[in-house]
Prior knowledge:
This protein is an alpha/beta fold.
Amino acid sequence: MDGIVIEDSPIVDRFSAAWARELSPTPIKLVKAEHLIECPRKIVTRVLYPQKIKVERRDAVRYAMDCSLRCRWMSYLEHNFSFQVIARDLRVEDGDLWLQTIIEAKLKVDSKTVVVIFRHVSTNDMYRAKNMGPKKRDVVTVAASAHMSEVHDGIIVYGHGEDCCFYHIGLTDNLLNPIRQKCRVLSKYLLTSQLPPKCSSGCSFCNSLPTAAS
Ligand SMILES: [Zn+2]
């Protein structure tokens, strides 16, 4: 169609190149922040042998629900002048710690920059979150995300239906040092492409995969 389809468009070339980069596997394999509280053997298996990690249906459903909560919040935040959205779905990493994550949202609120994670929870988990505080996995994820974003504050948003609750996590050395320490241990195994020893007991991953990737 004359005048509508532009042949040999350099802009289309840019889109093609960007998509090819998106599809190509990342050359450096790093630990994802959201997996940091798992046992070392499982974390290293995830990085070195991802095909050996079974994706549970409930995890896939939970991820979809988290995305839905995040979309709902982001469309609100982007039109609310109390919040300035700096970035969303931003890939960040710390090569020294062999750590990476995707920042779900980075906002400026009252001149303070924060990173935010959104987690859809069940009714029981919402009750637990309100009465017993945030889950360790979420605290570690938001702390590692804040560290990699070079900010000192993170927010966890828990949502269930119309009900939401919020936690502000301040990044301190007490929170960051155990993360650094665990990353240092993991990096020794990742550098040599070896798996850490199995946990002695109480680990469903190590107990259920006696010969995994060994
Ligand atoms: Zn284990």
